[in-house]
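Hi there,

I know you've been waiting on this one. I reran it after we fixed the sequence typo, so this is the corrected version. Both the input and the resulting structure follow.
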Amino acid sequence: MRHNIIKKISLFLLLAVMISSCKKWIDTDLNTNPNRPADVTMALLLPSTQSALGYVIGGDYTRVSAMWMQHLSGVDRQSLALERYSVLESDQNNLWNTLYGEVLKNLSILQAKAEEQNAMHFLGISKVMTAYTLAMITDVWGDAPFTEALNGDEGNLTPVYDSQESIYGAVNTLLTEAIAHLGETTPTGVPVPGTSDLIFGGDAAKWMAVAKTLKVRYTLHLSKKNGLGPVRDAINAGGLIADNDGDFQFNFGVAANENNPRFQFDDQRGDIRVGAKIVDLMNVTGDPRIAGYFDKKDAADYTGSTPGGAELGAAWAGPAYAGNGAPVFFLNYFEVKFMEAEAFFGTDNARAATAYNDAVKASLAKHGVSDAAWEAVNAAETSGSISLEKIMTGKYIANYLNSETWVDWKRTAIPSLSLPASNVSVTPRRYLYPTDERLYNGANMPAGVQSTDRVWWDQ
């Protein structure tokens, strides 16, 4: 199914089903609007919501954290201010409202329809996507609305905030349930996702692997609380993404109304370049992924903008991540191997080294630049040479423009980062709650939150 059709569906569904639970201005009279469609099928809801998720994760969600993690560098206007940690509550309004009012709301409708029709594969996919979205929300905001978050159409416009610990429990439950649903056989006559699933074409086995791999990711997020033992157990349980063909990603198109959100932002704004940190790391080794990661325009060499340096001549994000038809990556096979390397480092260094080497090779293969000579030097760790610094630095490079890098940095303090301005002393560790929440749900919103505060799992 072509993405331009999906874009039109997305606009239709925004009018048809988007009811934000967290914004006071929503008029509940919309429930009786005679011009509003009474029903939307699962086959329309699923692709529209996948498109919306890809767009928001590839855009507002990762843009700021990528600057703070020095994958990117703001060089002018608002992006330069964000680069220098000058962040406002209003900067988060669009992100919050899209995640809740569009993505989660549509997923809740999809889930209800799937339950009504006993469509277990639709139900399983909706729960995987809900778990992923909830985790993305709580990882950057900590405590957040969940149990009451999607009841705006029932009159609850001031949902309570659930603790991050309880949200993580809910995420795990959703993934467990999703795995069970996806393992069921669909009876004749019951709707199946098929081509309406733009990510895996309805392949339940691939969705199950994503669910099990997300369990590993979120168990790793809790390593400050629970250590790495549970991560090793989750990895050893198996059933994870096994190759690049199982990567969880959303593929955008090359037509004007199908474009990757990073491409659109760069094309319209042009105030972000790549960060010197990652460019320098890749230049040192002659990393063959560099041409896909960065676009040097007319410059002779690949250079990045130093933190806060506002260097307009630095390279731009490249075609593999910011091309007009580039995908947005949610979870890749190489991350499985990096997680394995970290989890087993210190207890089984031989396994950690092998996993690290496999991760780097998988990342190169993902970009179509496998290079035996380069890999013989840079993906040839042994039990005696492997280190946590190498593992996390390799993951930092492979997970370019992925917010998981921010999570990893908060857990391990790797890589070391330079401050972007003389008047700041601490790198942000979370997003601020948006202005809309303060205005319309201020009684429930946690007070006094600063961007340098730590969320529960980061303490």
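Quick highlight: Residues 1-32 have pLDDT under 50 and may be disordered.

Best,
R. S.
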